[in-house]
Amino acid sequence: MDHAAPKSLQDDFENLFENTMAGNLVVSPGGIVLRANGRLARWLGHTVQELVGKRLSELLTVGGSIYLETHLAPMLRMQGEFEEIMLEMRSSSGGKIPVLINGFEQRDAAGQPLFLRLTVIRATHRMAYEQNLRQAGKQARDALATVEGTLLDERETAALREQFIAVLGHDLRNPLAAIDGGMRAIARSPLNEQQETIVSLVEATVKRMSGLIDDIMDFARGRLGGGIPVRLCETDLATVLLQVVNEISRARPGRTIDADVELPLPIMCDGPKLAQLTSNLLANAVAHGAPDGPITITARSKGAGFELSVANAGEPIPADAVERLFLPFTRVADGGKQGLGLGLYIASEIAKAHGGRLKVVSDESRTVFTLEVPT
């Protein structure tokens, strides 16, 4: 039987918005629901009219609302989108519905947000899968304890450990987000000097823990997925690098960081990933370089590619340590400084994902890490 073609693209869009297996939401920059489709309304036990005008945070659980404020909102400001974020929505009866949410922020010509499109997918089966994965991780740990000293293949053992790391990193995010949100709420209240000090210490610890979890997740994705994924697009890399320098300088006001960045043309790269690489290199220079010596970051275009280097004065890296510097969980003896030893490994993997290479030269005068991304 022939079907009539849509009268217009608008009709086609309306049909797609309403008749799909996913829930659809359009949300204002202020977080107010402007539109919802019938499928999402049925999932939540509301009518479409009841959803319109509600705040997005009202449709989420407490943990989901905190995650929206502390993670998704900053991610939208930086990237304009997010993918496959696991949250829980609240039904009208008070039940919890696990969902995966994809979001895209529509902006005007000046870059100001107009509205946010959200695609919501029920994740009941995904949750069951993750529960099975956690159980598999426990079984793997039990198996490792009982079969130690047997003929288990080293690669299989490493894969099991990396699966466990991935599960652990994922499960730590939500409680840490709750702590972070709680501290933000407390910080908005009147506090005495002692309370302000405690809140500041907890916030600094949360920030450090979040960085460690990010490193663990990047490590797990890189090892289990064949490398760290990147999204290449034309990027004003100079602005990205200078923002990182500014952030590190504010965090360490006593250290001098000289930036010599000349990248007049957009670079085809993943800006957030290269910001992470640069942050790792600068943090490494701050931690291991001479306290009274300057740190220099230099960036130059090379054809359609570029070269980035971070240099610092201080004791040279031992020759035997240089050979394993970019391996995971490798740390040079540094007088007790903390860390997982993943920063340089992740930086190296980001370089490889861009088709480039990260190398280091270290002598008595200075240590230089250089990223080369060819045409």
From TrEMBL:
SUPFAM superfamilies: ATPase domain of HSP90 chaperone/DNA topoisomerase II/histidine kinase, Homodimeric domain of signal transducing histidine kinase, PYP-like sensor domain (PAS domain)
Record-annotated PAS domain positions: 9-60
Domain of life assignment: Bacteria
Catalytic activity: ATP + protein L-histidine = ADP + protein N-phospho-L-histidine
GO MF term list: phosphorelay sensor kinase activity
Location of the Histidine kinase domain: 167-375
Pfam families: HATPase_c, HisKA
Keywords: Kinase, Phosphoprotein, Plasmid, Transferase, Two-component regulatory system
InterPro entries the UniProt entry points to: HATPase_C_sf, HATPase_dom, His_kinase_dom, HisK_dim/P_dom, HisK_dim/P_sf, PAS, PAS-like_dom_sf, Sensor_HK_Regulatory
SMART domains associated with the record: HATPase_c, HisKA, PAS
EC number: 2.7.13.3
Record has Kinase as a keyword: yes
NCBIfam families, A to Z: sensory_box
Name this protein carries in UniProt: histidine kinase
